[in-house]
């Protein structure tokens, strides 16, 4: 999606939200949150949702999600100390894959600071191949609850 459209994202474009309090160690030498921290946050909100809403138990589940693609568009810096609101939605839900979009908002500000995306492919834990029937029902049903409306992609 074009960065100028992503830059217009609001909290209401997302269906699941999670708070994160920045830490001093999140800053880099330029006094803003390091790029790698954004990816840590993306992973955190996605896995929080999968565990809380999709019955996924990462240590024991027969299916696991492998990240096969990720990227981030940065629009404005975030730095310590700050509280950020992470926002999650599903842009595409396939048989064994899901494309997530994550918005990062600084508490008290409406402008989105960054929008990230990553793709999980759910595979059998042992074989590392997608299951013939696709992802587990509870997983797919949970992800469908935060799917974006096609008109808002």
TrEMBL record:
Gene3D superfamilies xref list: Hotdog Thioesterase
Pfam family, one: 4HBT_2
Record-level Gene Ontology MF annotations: fatty acyl-CoA hydrolase activity; isomerase activity
Keywords recorded for this protein, A-Z: Hydrolase, Isomerase
Keyword Ribosomal protein: no
Family per similarity comment: Belongs to the 4-hydroxybenzoyl-CoA thioesterase family.
The protein's name: Thioesterase/thiol ester dehydrase-isomerase
Organism: Periconia macrospinosa
